[in-house]
Design a protein that fits this description.
This protein starts with 9 loop residues before the first strand and ends with a helix. It has helices at 38-41, 45-48, 71-75, and strands at 10-16, 19-24, 29-33, 52-54, 59-62, 67-70. The protein has 76 residues and is α+β, with helices and mostly antiparallel strands.
């Protein structure tokens, strides 16, 4: 029998008023201050928008800003 528990994943990332916001596949949104992430804080809005979702939404990666953020770390 297949496990029917939804595995959390990030489906969308956006920035609003100094916050990084993520939308999860369970419909919930979470926000944290960008100031918690020094490499993001140094980036321009255009650079912050250039992210990739890795590992089926478990990680956010910013190549230009040398930053990786895990979903688990974000939710702590």
């Amino acid at each position: 029998m297949k496990n029917s528990v939804l595995e959390l994943a990030i489906t969308k990332v956006w920035f609003d008023a100094g916050m990084i916001c993520v939308h999860l596949n369970n419909g919930q949104d979470y926000r944290k201050p960008i100031s918690l992430y020094p490499n993001l804080r140094k980036g321009s809005p255009k650079q912050m928008e250039k992210y990739e979702l890795w590992d089926n939404g478990k990680w956010i990666h910013w190549e230009e800003l040398n930053e990786d953020l895990s979903l688990d770390g974000f939710l702590i």
